[in-house]
Specification:
Elements: H1 2-10, H2 22-27, H3 30-45, H4 48-116
Length: 117
């Protein structure tokens, strides 16, 4: 602490009255001060009914968000089921093609067998 005190004693200081725009230093300027006053006035005009309406709106928005997440999960589950069923359908298709080929082959063998009798 003694170093800080020594520095302050040595450094030249500008008198407070000579500082430019004292209002801006403390309040951020006239525009900011005016905006802050307007915000404060607006906030003081908000009633309990307004707050209740805001709370209800927030709850509704949260419910919508929750519902959207549920729909998202349903769509993901549906996509997964469709993908899995795609593999099953591909397998069924391959089995049908194999069965068709086997039937053609069996018909040829039956035709040959009937010729040999």
């Amino acid at each position: 602490m003694s170093l800080i005190v020594a520095y302050l004693k040595q450094s030249p200081r500008t008198p407070f009255s000579d500082l430019a725009d004292d209002e801006k230093i403390f309040n951020g300027g006239d525009a900011t001060w005016s905006e802050q006053n307007q915000e404060h006035a607006l906030l003081s005009e908000i009633t309990e009914e307004d707050l209740e309406a805001i709370r209800e709106r927030e709850e509704t928005i949260q419910k919508i968000e929750s519902d959207m997440l549920d729909v998202n999960q349903i769509i993901k589950d549906l996509a997964s089921m469709v993908y899995e069923q795609g593999d099953t359908i591909d397998s069924i298709e391959a089995n049908i093609e194999t069965a068709s080929s086997n039937v053609e082959s069996a018909n040829e063998q039956l035709a040959k067998a009937s010729q040999h009798q």
